[in-house]
Design goal:
This protein is mainly beta. It contains one helix and 25 strands. The longest helix has 19 residues.
Length: about 325
């Protein structure tokens, strides 16, 4: 009887934990809906008709109109329309792909070429990336790439993990390349990795319009090995407070250096860097959530061509209702 009682208690405890723990999907995180943009590039560079994809309610957009996320979609990608000196160019490295009866996202590192007889012949390496936030269009130069991305969305929850399905292909002996479109392409040692991270910040704005932040929660991982099949329900744990002295800590999990700060729009409508000034307390409530998936982990314009990360069913896991984000 004592053993039966203990077993029943364990079952009850497990049932209670299961009832409290829940995965809440991020809107459009099932990757089944996509916006298709049909854009004609400038005649000077060939006038090709290009497709550029965005994650959001199913729609088709014709023409070179700047895109803003619609229908409540919180997602942006590295897919972008650029207009430099009046020349329209499209870059697309994130695609909808088929998975069973639905869709998933396919993120690939590609070499984007821009060629005009006698004027332009440049190659730019682009790592397919999707993130919570928005991309500011049209992009007018390849300088300061982070300044064109508004990283993060308002958020006050405290999830225990980022949950998602993924599959990864890393070309054997693929090497790494740096190519920003200006100067000679450089071959670099090693092979790139895919990267996924979730960062929770508490932000505030000062009287001059500068945005400051403290790091509330961190989950970050680099993926260095191909997976022949899908890995379902993968959990990236969120660690709260200062983790710099923990045994699992790696340098890439640390605070974002000021020189590499992500950007956000302040109350005046200006894009300014979000400067992380330190770690917050373990029980702090965040104001913003950053989630990013990328087919590369290095500096901008650096990566392994052909490296491909597939992503599906992205959600946030909560261990207790008190940690849920406000809706």
């Amino acid at each position: 009887m004592k053993r039966i009682f203990i077993a029943l208690c364990l079952c009850a405890a497990m049932a209670t934990a299961a009832a409290q723990s829940a995965v809440r999907p991020i809107p459009y995180g099932n990757m089944d809906q996509w916006v298709t943009r049909n854009i004609q590039e400038s005649r000077l560079i060939g006038g090709q008709h290009k497709r550029c994809y965005a994650i959001g309610p199913t729609a088709t957009i014709e023409g070179d109109k700047p895109y803003n996320p619609s229908g409540g979609s919180p997602w942006a990608t590295s897919n972008v329309m650029a207009k430099v000196m009046g020349i329209t160019k499209v870059s697309n490295a994130v695609f909808p792909d088929t998975r069973g009866s639905g869709k998933c996202a396919r993120l690939t590192t590609i070499m984007e070429n821009c060629k005009a007889i006698g004027l332009i012949n440049i190659d730019v390496l682009v790592a397919g990336t999707m993130f919570l936030g928005r991309m500011l269009e049209p992009v007018k130069s390849t300088s300061d790439p982070y300044g064109k991305m508004e990283m993060g969305i308002p958020f006050d929850g405290r999830p225990s993990a980022l949950v998602y399905d993924y599959k990864l292909h890393i070309p054997a002996n693929g090497g790494r390349i740096y190519s920003s479109g200006f100067g000679k392409k450089k071959n670099l040692p090693g092979t790139d990795k895919a990267e996924v991270f979730i960062i929770l910040q508490r932000r505030w704005e000062d009287s001059q319009g500068n945005i400051h932040a403290r790091r509330v929660g961190t989950g970050r991982e680099l993926m260095a090995h191909s997976t022949p099949e899908w890995v379902d329900g993968h959990e990236l744990t969120v660690h709260y407070g200062d983790i710099s002295s923990e045994s699992f800590f790696r340098p890439y999990m640390g605070l974002i250096p000021e020189s590499k700060s992500y950007f956000a729009q302040n109350s005046r409508g200006d894009m300014v860097p979000v400067v992380e000034e330190g770690w917050d307390s373990p029980d702090a409530r965040p104001t913003h959530l950053i989630v990013m998936f990328s087919a590369g982990s290095g500096e901008p314009f650096t990566g392994t061509p052909g490296l491909t990360l597939w992503v599906d069913n992205v959600g946030l896991q909560y261990d207790k209702p008190a940690d849920y984000a406000a809706e």
